[in-house]
Design a protein that fits this description.
This protein folds into two domains: about 150 residues, Fructose-1,6-Bisphosphatase, Chain A, domain 1, CATH 3.30.540; about 110 residues, D-Maltodextrin-Binding Protein, domain 2. Helix 1 packs antiparallel against helix 2. The N and C termini lie far apart (about 40 Å). The chain is an alpha+beta fold. The chain is about 30% helix and about 30% strand. The strands form three sheets. An eight-stranded mixed beta sheet has the order 4-3-5-6-7-8-9-10, with helices on both faces. Strands 12-11-13-15-14 form a five-stranded mixed beta sheet, sandwiched between helices. A hairpin with a 4-residue loop joins strand 7 and strand 8.
Length: about 270
């Protein structure tokens, strides 16, 4: 496999293309559609899965660039689905991770761009256009980018749940059984914060948050994030300690010792 970081300039190009479109529409009047078919509460969250023209236009623009530059590659995107998934290289896109924040004018949403090789997530970027920040990397290493300057990303050490700063997007997104397991961890943790979507994972890579616990996420929500965390020295698994390929229940942690404790707590009956 070639040096993955030869793709980094293209990651930045995709991020810049998406940012131009999303920033232009941020905090502007937008029609908000609900992708949840019936809009009813099904017991997980509130039945709302919002999407806007910003989501769709940004993904469409990134897809055009990929098809022009790498016509043999596949694409998996949140808004327009899959094409050529049997390719060795597949790009995984979430144009706006955190659409709820986006439509509320809160600047902590982000664009997620990932690359699979032979089915495995190997390269990723978390782009925060409003703050002009990008977090990107692979198992070969991860970096923080702002205004053209790059610095290495390193997670921080945290050996116990009692010392941990944790996050989840919204506890209501858990099933009742998942919520009970999460609540046990939160009660032991130093502090917990909600509502940051992909930005919370970026803060794990930056060494500011110790652990993020989520469930019900799609491939586009986590596969671009996983290489960034791993390259910064952190851990990314499902709740059973396995791969996050395809999404599902996920945990990202900055310290392997904390990660094991979190997994033990999530497996408790």
């Amino acid at each position: 496999m070639q040096n993955l970081h030869t793709y980094v300039p293209f990651l930045h190009e995709l991020a810049e293309t998406a940012a131009t479109l999303t920033k232009a529409l941020f905090r502007s009047p937008l029609t908000i559609e609900n992708k949840a078919t019936d809009g009813a509460d099904d017991g997980v969250g509130d039945g709302l899965d919002p999407v806007t023209a910003a989501d769709r236009e940004a993904e469409a623009a990134m897809r055009r660039l990929i098809n022009q530059r790498y016509p043999t590659h596949g694409i998996l995107g949140e808004e327009y689905g899959a094409e050529n998934l049997d390719a060795d290289w597949v790009w995984v896109l979430d144009p706006i991770d955190g659409t709820r924040s986006f439509i509320c004018g809160i600047p902590l949403w982000g664009t997620l761009i990932g690359l699979r090789h032979e089915g495995d997530p190997v390269l990723g970027m978390i782009s925060q256009p409003v703050l002009n920040e990008r977090f990107f990397g692979s198992a070969q290493g991860s970096w923080y980018w702002r205004n053209g300057k790059e610095t290495p990303l390193t997670t921080r050490r945290c050996q116990t749940i009692a010392a941990a700063q944790i996050s989840t997007t919204d506890p209501r997104l858990f099933t009742s059984d998942e919520r009970q397991l999460y609540d046990r961890i939160e009660k032991k943790a130093k502090l917990a914060r909600y509502g940051y979507d992909c930005y919370a994972h970026a803060m794990v890579a930056l060494g500011q948050i110790d652990c993020v616990i989520e469930a019900g996420v799609g491939a586009h929500d986590i596969e671009p994030i996983a290489p960034v965390i791993a390259g910064a020295g952190g851990c990314v698994t499902n709740w059973s300690g396995g791969s996050v390929k395809g999404g599902g229940q996920v945990v990202t942690s900055g310290d392997a010792r904390l990660h094991e404790l979190i997994l033990e707590a999530l497996s408790a009956s």
